[in-house]
Amino acid sequence: GVDIDPQAIRASSDNARANGVRAQFVHVDAVGAERFAIVVANILANPLRVLAPALAARTQDGGRIALSGILASQADAVARDYAPWFDIAVRAEDDGWVLLTGTRRTGIR
Questions:
Q1: Could you count the other beta carbons within 10 Å of the beta carbon of residue 109?
Q2: Alpha-carbon dihedral of residues 54, 42, 59, 48, nearest 10 degrees?
Q3: pTM above the 0.70 mark?
Q4: What's the pLDDT tens digit per position in 29-71?
Q5: How would you label 2-28 residue by residue, b for 16+ Cβ within 10 Å and e otherwise?
Q6: 46-58: string of b/e by CB count within 10 Å (b at 16+)?
Q7: Is the dihedral of CA 99, 101, 59, 105 positive or negative?
Q8: Percent of the chain at pLDDT above 90?
């Protein structure tokens, strides 16, 4: 896992350990320009919209993205911001919150 917040890295590590999950969490600076097969972001819609180019750049061609922390009323706007790079749509909705998932199209930078 990668994050920009040292406290979130600690909390994620502690949570994984408490649940018996083997995982490693590092600061974003530690991964350089590496691209990943799966990118997951669970923050609010506005930061997700701002981060669209950065998260797209971290997702390898054919890779998957999952975005949550989005109110149903905000899903279309968030999806539009990711549409230049991803085939993306609402995957699930629960109590007014949605999960967007998508696949990164190849050859698009």
A1: 6
A2: -30
A3: yes
A4: 898 888 999 999 999 999 999 999 999 999 999 999 999 999 9
A5: bbeeeeebeebeeeeeeeeeeeebeee
A6: eebbebbeebbeb
A7: negative
A8: 87
